[in-house]
Amino acid sequence: MDQAGLKLEPDVEAALAHIAAGQDFLLSGGAGSGKTYSLVQLIGELLRTDHSSFIACITYTNAAVHEIESRVSNARLFVSTIHEFLWEAIAPYQIELKATLMKLLSGENPAIRPGSTVVTADMFDDKVIQYKDYMLLGDGVISHDEIIKLAAAMFQSYPRLRDILRDRFRYILVDEYQDTAPEVVRILLDYLTQSTRKGVCGFFGDAMQSIYDDGVGDIQHYVVTAAVKEVRKEQNRRNPRLVFELANRLRTDGIVQHASEDLTAPNMHEGSVRDGQVRFYYTTGDESRLQDVRNHLGWDFSDVVETKELNLTHNLIAPQAGFGDLMAIYDRDSVLSFRNRIVTFIKRNDDIAKYDNRTFGETVALLQEGKAGPALNAVSPTAGMRQFIESRPDLMANAEARNFREFRRMYVDKEQLLDDKKQSEEELARKGSNRCDFISHVFKIQKVVHLYQQRRYNEFLRHTEFRLSRSEDKIRLKERIEAIVAMRETPVAEVIHYAHENGLCVIDDRYRQFIERKGYLYDRLKHVPFRSFQNVYEYLEGRTTFSTQHKIKGREFDRVLVVMDSGGWNNYNFNYLFEGGGNPTVLARTQKLFYVCCTRAKDTLAVYFHNPSTEALRQAEAWFGADNCVAL
């Protein structure tokens, strides 16, 4: 990429001055300030002026990697996720890697917990340590969580590793640094700085957008001690004036954004920044009136590319998006909660293998036998569990008849339903997924139908077992697809068998093993109408206006509706946000998330709060302006 002749931003010039002086630096800026634009400019200038050096640009997500790669490409530029970057740095050194891994697995409180794997001194002798999406220590396989700890320990223990990395990359640039694990920051700012080789690390991001608990949040300690030089980027290129002025009121670090001096910035119109719109809607009463808010806005909610409604949790979205029944199965099954309670009790008090040949019902009866008072309560359902179980005795009977060993090993989590959500249809799915085999199989059927309906016939033929050998087959195929489309209210098991019998999506070993190993879950899923799976598929493929507030980070849309409902999640509290006070950690976490949500809007921002207090309304008027607060 040749940047010659292009005017560099002042912020980029300041960062380049720090690089020239051999100083690590931080380019910090609010949402919409164009940090990625600055990052790309800086990379281009380094490639242009330093012909012998290589650059590593590392970031938090695959989506961010693709974004950077789409803007700049060069043989001397290596762009990757943080995990891939660290793995490539340590993977060749298997002897040191194994020694470090054994050390982290040892002791009373090991840094890496081995789970059910028995740790022995020779367990890795005949193995090559591999990095995959799951951990299987017995086979020498480690996953995302272990990579960070392992790499930090290796860079701390082996100085030569620091020199090798510095020799390879003169410049290491970290995008969205606030989401980076603290161990990664230690590698770059504590361990690499001890190398005798020259090099600079640069950090790009915004502490106000640190919404993930496992991220470092900020690196102000290094700034205060002058180990890192900070460059502040205070323009705004994305948001209209009313939105970034609201965002300024939400910040707590002193950064105050102003309109960009670049007249070609996206938020400019005819030589000045667009005003945009902000609205604070509120209602009172027993029931939320979210639909009334949507009606009042008058937006085209079918425009899923430029219109987004942001809720805090998937559970709040599921009923509106039409898959509440599936969420109830994967996230709110109290029979499984009771099973977990029983398993925990046994592990704390007994040898769990003693019960492996019994049914779950026999195990519970044996544990409860002869007990009374607190002892009986410990092996009985809680009040909430009991209410659910009494309302669904069929589920409890199903569970009681199952082998305890198989039943306790049946893992069920909402990530198996909702993992790998896209924000748009064009976004690439990340590598690896926690999605369960039943959901994956149904999604194969829905994908085949979608490809056919979109007339993407070549892709369709790659994803189906249906074969076209003569003209009559086309007619038969059309009839089969139309039949599946008409089966929205049909139990999903019938749809699966229809697709199998007609060659559209053949039942494979993964599906059969799911039924065998997760019979209880299968019995719950098989009666669910096909439409619920279709709805969750559309949601996960980014074809709806709904998104969780966390998943929206890094995106931007013309119209954004933010729903102030914590959904019972104690980590967040919107009353704290608007009233002030409360748990400081919860308040800070909520304020940062709200800041991220508001700054997604390129034109119009609407916020909906049901039953706000008088104090909350007073704060809303201060932030949004009294004329922009609307009672419905």
Polypeptide structure, described:
The chain is 46% helix and 12% strand. The chain is an alpha/beta fold and 632 residues long. The strands form 5 sheets. A 6-stranded parallel beta sheet has the order 3-2-6-7-1-8. Strands 15-14-16-17-13-18 form a 6-stranded parallel beta sheet, sandwiched between helices. The longest helix has 17 residues, at 437-453. The mean pLDDT is 92.
Strand order of the largest sheet: 3-2-6-7-1-8
Strand content: 5-15%
- Major sheet summary line: 6 strands, parallel
Q: How many distinct beta strands? A: 18
Mean pLDDT: 92
Shape: globular
Indicate the radius of gyration in whole angstroms.
27 Å
- Class of secondary structure makeup: alpha/beta
Low-confidence runs of at least 5 consecutive residues: none
Helix content: 40-55%
Number of H/I helices: 30
Question: What distance separates the N and C termini?
Answer: 53 Å
Summarize the SSE layout with pairings.
Layout: H1 10-20, E1 25-29, H2 35-49, E2 55-59, H3 62-71, E3 77-81, H4 82-90, H5 94-105, E4 130-131, E5 141-142, H6 144-157, H7 159-168, E6 171-175, H8 182-191, E7 200-205, H9 220-224, E8 229-233, E9 235-236, H10 241-250, E10 258-259, E11 268-269, E12 272-273, E13 277-283, H11 290-297, E14 307-311, H12 314-321, H13 324-331, H14 334-349, H15 360-368, H16 374-377, H17 383-391, H18 393-400, H19 404-408, H20 415-418, H21 437-453, H22 457-462, H23 471-485, H24 492-501, H25 509-517, H26 519-525, H27 530-540, E15 546-548, E16 557-564, H28 574-579, H29 584-598, E17 601-610, H30 614-624, E18 629-631
Parallel strand pairs: 1-7, 1-8, 2-3, 2-6, 4-5, 6-7, 9-10, 13-17, 13-18, 14-15, 14-16, 16-17
Antiparallel strand pairs: 11-12
Helix pairs in contact: 1-2, 4-6, 5-6, 6-7, 6-8, 10-29, 12-13, 14-17, 25-26
